[in-house]
Amino acid sequence: MSETTPIAVGALAPDFTLQDQDNKEFHLADHLGKKTVILFFYPLDWSPTCTKENACFTQSLARFEKYGAVASISVDSGYSHRAWADKLGLKHRMLSDMHRSVIKAYGLLFAKANISQRATVIIGKDGKVAWVKVEPDITKERDYAEVESVLGRPS
């Protein structure tokens, strides 16, 4: 699989462990068999669209968490995530993938800028990718209503 070709629906989600803004580990395998995992990949902390999106993730956290575990992932450091969370009052888990290993494993590298594409990946309890959507324009926000609609479908 290419590091720039999004993972296919039905594929086994690559396992990973990343640190969040509180230096706590988020291990995908800890959630499998228990709950759906909703991953919001985004390009960069502090950028305008990503700021709006992450504020929305925090504001809508209860809405999304009723469906599963929620985390956002970018190439930024845990230190950047912590400072950004403190500045904006962000409450959701923000995972640091500075080595781009998860971003590449999920085929979501935006190679031109060496950052993540703006994408949503939903992983079922069975560990398989249930849904993936890459935003064609990296500067545009994702459609939260669409994500929630997909999450609300019977599995």
Write a concise synopsis of the structure shown.
With 155 residues, the protein is an alpha/beta fold.
Write the layout of secondary structure elements.
Elements: E1 17-19, E2 25-27, E3 36-41, H1 48-59, H2 61-65, E4 68-74, H3 78-88, E5 93-96, H4 101-105, E6 109-110, E7 115-116, E8 119-123, E9 129-134, H5 144-152
Parallel strand pairs: 3-4, 4-5
Antiparallel strand pairs: 1-2, 3-8, 6-7, 8-9
Query: CATH architecture, please?
Result: 3-Layer(aba) Sandwich
**CATH fold-level name:** Glutaredoxin
Q: Name the poorly predicted regions.
A: none
Mean pLDDT across the residues is 93
List its traits.
single chain; 155 residues; alpha/beta; Glutaredoxin; 5-stranded mixed sheet; two-stranded antiparallel ribbon; 9 strands; globular
Describe the structure.
The radius of gyration is 14 Å and the shape is globular. The chain has a single domain (17-152), classed as Glutaredoxin (3-Layer(aba) Sandwich), CATH 3.40.30.10. By secondary structure, the chain is of the alpha/beta class. It has a 5-stranded mixed beta sheet. A two-stranded antiparallel sheet has the order 1-2. Strand 8 and strand 9 (129-134) form a beta hairpin. It starts with 16 loop residues before the first strand and ends with a helix. The protein has helices at residues 48-59, 61-65, 78-88, 101-105, 144-152; strands at residues 17-19, 25-27, 36-41, 68-74, 93-96, 109-110, 115-116, 119-123, 129-134.
